[in-house]
Design brief:
With about 200 residues, the protein is of the alpha/beta class. Helices cover about 35% and strands about 20% of the residues. The strands form two sheets. A six-stranded mixed beta sheet has the order 2-1-3-4-8-7, sandwiched between helices. The radius of gyration is 16 Å and the shape is globular. It starts with 9 loop residues before the first helix and ends with a strand. It binds S-adenosylmethionine.
Length: about 200
């Protein structure tokens, strides 16, 4: 394993503690946490380090350089509760993991086509048991409006880079998840005009 593959995402260093503060009380003591779109792998690393050895983390990303980074961080950490990163496209009808107790996805749905959000909630509904948690984090519009000028500028920039990307409406994402089998979300406002959304799978 080449430690030089490790990537450093400044945003992950900033948001990992606020995210963990919201997420930790909802984590089971043991089981499997599937992270979709793990990117550099710094969130999985941080959460796995803060968890007991029986809570196993399964990171994933479609990007090979991201997977190399995730695996390099895991190897350097010496932690035993991080599995090797797998290829997972949220939009795909089949995922390489067929059950998990928690699904976490941070900062993906605004920076990929809407089909990724649709696939994410459908996939999470497939792999989670009743009561299982789908955790989303990122910027959202509320009731059709941006929550801050910086988010409006970010949205414009995203859409310029790729017309299929963009900051999504929180209510539209919530409707999608409810239609896929989740209860209405608990919504936690986060620093820098982001939100955490916690959806529990209905029985
Ligand atoms: C902005 S990065 C966020 C990475 C990490 N979660 C974080 O917050 O630092 C977006 C990530 O989404 C991944 N991604 C894009 N489209 C995806 C898809 N359809 N399924 C899964 N991951 C995807 C990219 O490869 C990238 O790693």
């Amino acid at each position: 394993m080449n430690d030089d593959a490790r990537q450093y995402a400044p945003s992950a260093a900033r948001n990992r503690d606020p995210i963990w503060n919201v997420l930790a009380p909802h984590m089971p003591p043991r089981g499997l946490v599937l992270e979709v779109a793990s990117g550099s792998g710094e969130h999985t690393l941080h959460f796995a380090r803060a968890s007991g050895p029986e809570l196993i983390f399964q990171p994933s990303d479609p990007d090979a350089a991201a997977r190399a980074s995730i695996d390099a961080w895991a190897a350097a950490s010496g932690l035993g509760n991080i599995r090797p990163a797998v290829v997972l496209d949220a939009a795909a009808d089949a995922w390489p993991v067929d059950r998990a107790d928690v699904v976490v996805c941070i900062n993906m749905i605004h920076i990929s086509p809407w089909s990724s959000a649709v696939g994410l909630v459908r996939g999470a509904a497939r792999v989670l048991p009743a009561g299982g948690l789908l955790f989303l984090y990122g910027p959202y519009r509320r009731s059709g409006a941006h929550t801050a000028p910086s988010n409006a500028a970010f949205d414009l920039d995203l859409r310029r880079r790729n017309p299929a990307w963009g900051v999504r409406d929180l209510e539209t994402v919530a409707d999608l998840a409810v239609a896929a089998g989740f209860a209405a979300p608990h919504i936690a406002p986060m620093p820098a005009n982001n939100f955490s959304l916690l959806f529990h799978r209905r029985p």
